[in-house]
Amino acid sequence: MSKSLKQAAQHPEANPWYRAVYVGDEPVGFVMLSWKPPAGPYTGRHFIWRLLIDKHHQGRGIGRETLTQVAALVREDGATELLTSYDPGDGEPWPFYQKFGFEPTGEIDDGEIVLRIVFPAQ
Question: Model-level pTM greater than 0.85?
């Protein structure tokens, strides 16, 4: 998490938005978005920069619930899609995102595969 906060401080142009993830009173994760940055490759779009759930709490639906809440927030903000990316390899999060409905965009960003979920019209 400290790496993410340092990156957020180093890149204010990415318009970082971040929150801790709790189960009850216990912090179990962290989520950070680039919230409609004014410039760059994702100008005006919502991009999940980090979604981290402590390994002791994975597999319990916490990541899915966090992603569900984030998706609802960005939809309320008028978004028609939500983006993220991942570094392919052992332990990659692609199956998690795929189950949620994300699909590859065909883009590669700094070696990471870019994904998106498109929200149905409201």
Answer: yes
Amino acid at 38: P
Task: Parse the chain into domains and list their residue ranges.
Answer: 2-118
d(CA 47, CA 14): 10
CATH architecture label of 2-118: 3-Layer(aba) Sandwich (3.40)
Q: Which residues of 28-61 are buried (b: 16+ CB within 10 A; e: fewer)?
A: bbbbbbbbbbeeeebeebbbbbbbbbeeebeeee
The H or E element that residue 35 is part of is strand 26-35
**Mean pLDDT per 10-residue run, the chain (122 residues)?**
82 92 96 93 94 95 97 96 95 95 95 95 72
C-alpha 19/C-alpha 107 separation (Å) is: 27
* 107 C-beta neighbours (distance < 10 Å), count: 13
DSSP 5: H
